[in-house]
Every structure is written in structure tokens, then in C-alpha cells.
Design goal:
With 628 residues, the protein is an alpha+beta fold. The chain is built from 19 helices and eleven strands. The strands form four sheets. Strands 1-2-4-3 form a four-stranded mixed sheet. Strands 9-10-11 form a three-stranded antiparallel sheet.
Length: 628
């Protein structure tokens, strides 16, 4: 079995190869200067001529020397001053988690390696060491005599799901990496690679003619050196990882196997929580403030459903790793906000259009609102379609004017006047030319001779305005079942509408981020705290899922309309499923059998499965529903 020292030797050998690439680049930059020195000394000593071709050679080599030194200085300055990539994280001060710092230091003592200089949390299921000694990441610590150890970055879901002993076993090979990281050659090679990567990023973001040309040259040189050192840097990191793993073999080896099983489970629950639960809230301009606490509920539900995970729930009786934090709720809130920025692109701070939401308020403030917004959008797009018969609108009536667009975030959602189901009699009273008596069918004044005789407009226009179309589920079902082209047309228009709203929301967020960066640079300080790491990058850094197809959007909107009708007419309620997100509760139980009837209607135009489902649940599709 290889020893930790063997891995360090392999890593050091590869680090020296990386440094040789740096030396070769420096030699190429200094080669014209060396040739100029030879020509000058040869002329001064008389060994080389001073006139004719030698004089021309001296001037040519001298000019090339000046150019090469200027370009080398430009590359060196950009590489030295460029801000290396920084992983977005939430810094944890020692007084906010003394027990966690004590656990990490004890682990470093057992492994006989330097302790990490600080601890930070990231909203991801991973842990690593990160060098943050660059001056752009903060001022150097006073009295520091040796190179500062890297920062330990821990995935925040681990702290809430794992037990203390499992977390210690999981962090053992990570903390062991501080030993090889302290080696001078390995540290120098890593700084060189990070500097080149940062310089390439600066060149890619350059704007303006005066900056683009020189920085384009710097970027090309940086990418050339990165390609030359790529293989050596990869093997160097593999050697460091092998050395750290070998050193950690003797520390909680049995628990490490269990901890690795928990990593896979935590990743599955975290992914479902983000894509199914958090994403609908983010699209509405809200962010769940206790995502890490939700991981426990999601994984507990997964353990209940999956027979392979039956024993995992029994671990909840042991001490969770989040007890190592003094204020886990505050840390969870900061990590949840950072997760929203990383995976959705939300603002850095809460505001009127970006407010937190708790799990208790999630069903009403997220699920119900999501359904109402999608149902309103569906009816608005349906209104814009050409009518096919009296069920949609009278043929003589003009097409209704399009309503203002609904957005998931930003201004408060509004409902068009024709989509006011709860106040339908009020809408009828407000509409000229309509009358409605209790229990009587709707009747137009245009069909009533007595009403026409008393109307001041009877002589001017014999045609009365069309009655507003009530937003009912029956109208949607009838249109999709009767018109074979309506499904494709609705899907296409819904897709265009959603894409436009998302584009507008992204543009607003980009403008806010640009204003934040401008304000930060104008004050002379950094625009974002070092723990954020998002000052120079676009958002989101890690989109959660690819865009939905038009058919999927149509199915989602029809499902939302069905859920609204069930809530308004059958006593159902919006709910939260920890693994699937928004859920419809009927008699307190989740109904998960709605998807197939909706797809039958959307894909095949067959409304019978959905009508049967509505009859069993007690939904009245002819009744108007309340929209956003």
C-alpha cells in the first residue's frame, strides 16, 4: 500500500513540472534581452562589429527586447493582480461555531497536519479545501509568519443531515489535505495555475477598445500556459488527494463508509428539494429561508418511501452536526439565500420583490399563488385564441383585448376584469348591455326589446358588447377536447409567454447586479463580501434544469387550473410534498393521480379520464374559479 509520503512526492514532482512551464515562459520573455546584452557587450569589447549589419541588429534586437519586456510585464501584472475564482460560500466565524472549530482542530491533530485557517459553508453536497490567501480575498492576518492554511469549505446539507461522528469521518480526508497544501512547491504551483485562470477570466470580461487588445494578448498567453501545464496540474492534484486519503485511513475508517452512504442520500434529497420545492418559490420572487432544515424532512420522507433506506431514519435520534453551530437558524438563512443566487440568480439581499418564506406559509403563499397565476395565464392565452363556437364567445363579438402580462416576480399580480370569478355578478352589473337575475340565465339587452326601447344607445348601435367569459375548468376542457389544433396553439403561446416573462425577470436582475457592482466600485471597496464569490460572474452559476417544453408547460397550466377548481369547489387544499413540491390535498391526503388524466387531455384530446377524476373528487368544472 502506498504511504502518504509517496503521494506527496508524486504531487511535488508534478508541481515542479508546472513550475518549469512558468520558468520556460519567463525564459522566452527574456531571450531577446539576453541577445541584446550579447550584442552590446560584443560591440563594447570589440569582438563584434559596431557598424553595418551589427548596428542594425543591435537596434532591431533592442526594439524587440523592449517590446517583449513590456508584454511580459503586462502579463505578469495581470496574473498577479487578477482575482482568482472564489467558491461562493458563507464564512463561519469561530465564535459562531466554537464546537465545529474544535472538532476540526482535534481532527487535524490526530492526522498530524496543520488545521484549516477558517471554515465556510456552501449550499452544495461537497467539501473541499480552498486557498484564499490572495489579497483580493481580504487583508493578510497580522503577525503571520508562515503561509496561511487553506479554508475548509463544508456542504451545508451535511451539517443538518449527518450526525457529529459521521461529519468527523467525512471531513478526515479533506482536512488531511492541508499537509500537502503546505508544501512550498505545491503551493507555488497552485498559485501559478490560479493566477493564469484568473487572468484568462479578466481577458474574457474585457470591454472597450483600449482594454480589449492588450488583454486579449494576455488571455491568449494565459490559455497557452494553462494548456501546457494542464496534465501536470491534474496529476499533482491526484497525488495530493491520494496522500490525504492514505493519511486519513486510520481515523474513523468504519464510520467513513457509513458517511459516504449518507453523502449519496443527502445529494438525492438536496436535488429534489431544490428542483421540486425551492424552484417554484424562487420563480415567484420568494426564497425558502430554511432549506437545510428542509433537507431533513425531505430525506426522512425518502427514507419512509424507500425500503433500502429504512435504517436511516433511526439515526435522527443521535446528535446532528448542526448542533455544532451556535445559531443554526441564522446560518441556514444565509445559506438558503446563497443557494437562491447560485441556482436561480436571485438578488444578494432580501427586498420587496425577494422576500423569505417559511415552510408553514409555503402551501398558501407559494403553491396556491403558483396555481392561480398559471390558471390566469392559461385563460388569458385562451382568450386571445380565435373563437370556435358559442362556448367560447359569440361570433359577432370582437376579440377581447389582451390583459397585462402576469409575471412570477415583481409587481403584484393582477386579474383581468373578465377573469373575476368570485365577483362574477359584479362584473355583469358593471358590463353595459347585460342583465342577470338570481337563478335566471344570462340575457343580453340586445335580445330584450323592452330593454332596447329604454336604452339611450338603442338607436345608435343594435349590437351589444359580448358577455365576459367566466374562467371555468369546463371551458378549458371543452376547447382542448373539441379543437384538435387548440392544444398545439395554446402550448406554443404559453411557451412564448413564459419565455418572455423569464427574459424580463433576468434583465431586471442583471440591472440590479450591475448597479450593485457599480456602487461597490464607486465607494472604493469590494462590491460583495469575500464569502459571496459572485462579484464578477453571471447568475445563475448552476441552473437547476433545462427549459420546459411547450407541451410540458401546457400540462402544468391545465393541472394548475384543475387544482384551483378543486380548491374552490371541492374543499381541497394546497399542500407541500417534500420530494415533489406543490401537492393537492383532498380530505387531508395527497392526490398523486392527476398527471395521467391531464396528459390524456393535453396529448390526445381525450377528456373522459379527467372528467372521471373530477367526478370522483367532487370538482364542479362549470363553476368559475378565483384566479390571481
Amino acid at each position: 500500500m502506498a504511504s502518504p509520503e509517496t503521494g506527496v512526492l508524486v504531487a511535488r514532482a508534478r508541481a515542479l513540472a508546472v513550475l518549469r512551464v512558468r520558468g520556460a515562459a519567463l525564459a522566452v520573455a527574456l531571450l531577446p534581452a539576453a541577445a541584446a546584452v550579447v550584442l552590446l557587450v560584443g560591440g563594447a569589447t570589440g569582438r563584434l562589429g559596431t557598424e553595418g549589419g551589427w548596428a542594425v541588429a543591435r537596434w532591431a534586437v533592442g526594439g524587440l527586447t523592449v517590446l517583449s519586456l513590456v508584454l511580459a510585464a503586462l502579463v505578469s501584472v495581470v496574473v498577479a493582480r487578477a482575482r482568482p475564482a472564489l467558491s461562493p460560500s458563507v464564512p463561519i466565524a469561530e465564535d459562531a461555531a466554537p464546537d465545529l472549530y474544535r472538532l476540526v482542530r482535534d481532527l487535524a491533530d490526530r492526522l498530524d497536519v496543520p488545521a484549516p485557517s477558517a471554515i465556510a459553508l456552501t449550499p452544495d453536497c461537497d467539501s473541499w479545501l480552498e486557498d484564499r490567501t490572495h489579497r483580493a480575498h481580504g487583508p493578510p492576518r497580522a503577525g503571520r509568519r508562515s503561509p496561511e492554511a487553506p479554508v475548509l469549505v463544508i456542504g451545508s446539507p451535511f451539517l443538518w443531515w449527518m450526525r457529529v461522528a459521521e461529519l468527523r469521518a467525512l471531513l478526515a480526508p479533506v482536512v488531511a489535505g492541508t499537509g500537502p497544501s503546505a508544501h512550498p512547491d505545491i503551493a507555488a504551483a497552485r498559485r501559478f495555475i490560479r493566477g493564469l485562470d484568473a487572468a484568462a477570466g479578466v481577458a474574457a470580461r474585457a470591454r472597450g477598445p483600449l482594454r480589449t487588445l492588450p488583454l486579449r494578448f494576455v488571455g491568449r498567453v494565459a490559455r497557452l500556459l494553462l494548456r501546457a501545464a494542464r496534465e501536470h496540474a491534474t496529476l499533482m492534484e491526484r497525488g495530493v488527494a491520494a496522500a490525504a486519503s492514505e493519511r486519513a485511513q486510520g481515523v474513523d475508517y468504519g464510520l467513513r463508509i457509513v458517511a459516504q452512504e449518507q453523502v449519496g442520500l443527502a445529494y438525492a434529497g438536496w436535488d429534489r428539494l431544490l428542483t421540486r420545492v425551492a424552484l417554484p418559490a424562487w420563480r415567484l420572487g420568494r426564497w425558502p429561508s430554511r432549506l437545510d432544515a428542509g433537507v431533513v424532512s425531505a430525506l426522512t420522507e425518502l427514507s419512509r418511501r424507500d425500503r433500502l433506506a429504512e435504517g436511516f431514519a433511526s439515526r435522527l435520534g443521535e446528535r446532528p452536526a448542526c448542533d455544532l453551530l451556535e445559531e443554526p437558524g441564522t446560518i441556514d438563512r444565509a445559506a438558503s439565500l446563497l443557494a437562491a443566487r447560485l441556482f436561480h440568480g436571485g438578488p444578494a439581499e432580501p427586498g420587496p420583490d425577494w422576500s423569505p418564506v417559511g415552510w408553514q406559509q409555503y402551501p398558501q403563499e407559494i403553491v396556491d399563488r403558483k396555481w392561480r397565476l398559471e390558471a390566469a395565464r392559461l385563460h388569458r392565452v385562451l382568450d386571445a385564441l380565435p373563437p370556435t363556437g358559442a362556448a367560447d364567445a359569440p361570433s359577432a363579438a370582437p376579440a377581447p383585448a389582451p390583459a397585462p402580462p402576469l409575471t412570477y416576480a415583481g409587481a403584484r399580480a393582477r386579474t383581468p376584469a373578465a377573469h373575476h370569478p368570485a365577483g362574477l355578478p359584479r362584473a355583469l352589473d358593471a358590463a353595459p348591455g347585460l342583465s342577470a337575475a338570481p337563478g335566471a340565465p344570462l340575457r343580453s339587452h340586445a335580445d330584450d326589446p323592452e330593454a332596447q326601447a329604454g336604452s339611450p344607445l338603442a338607436d345608435e348601435s343594435p349590437v351589444s358588447p359580448a358577455p365576459p367569459v367566466a374562467p371555468t375548468l369546463a371551458r378549458v376542457i371543452d376547447r382542448l377536447a373539441r379543437d384538435t389544433d387548440a392544444g398545439d396553439l395554446l402550448a406554443a403561446r404559453l411557451g412564448a409567454e413564459v419565455a418572455r416573462e423569464e427574459h424580463e425577470a433576468a434583465a431586471r436582475q442583471a440591472a440590479r447586479d450591475s448597479a450593485t457592482r457599480t456602487a461597490g466600485s464607486g465607494t472604493g471597496g469590494t462590491d460583495i463580501a469575500w464569502g459571496d464569490g459572485l462579484a464578477d460572474g453571471g447568475l445563475p452559476l448552476f441552473p437547476l434544469q433545462p427549459p420546459r417544453t411547450a407541451r410540458e408547460l401546457l400540462a402544468d397550466h391545465v393541472t394548475a387550473m384543475v387544482c384551483c377548481a378543486a380548491v374552490d369547489t371541492a374543499g381541497a387544499a394546497p399542500g407541500l410534498d417534500w420530494l415533489d413540491g406543490p401537492a393537492l390535498l383532498v380530505d387531508g391526503a395527497r392526490r398523486a393521480d392527476l398527471g395521467r388524466p391531464v396528459l390524456s387531455l393535453v396529448d390526445d384530446g381525450d377528456a373522459e379520464p379527467l372528467r372521471g377524476w373530477l367526478h370522483r373528487v367532487g370538482v364542479r368544472p362549470e363553476k368559475p374559479v378565483r384566479l390571481a
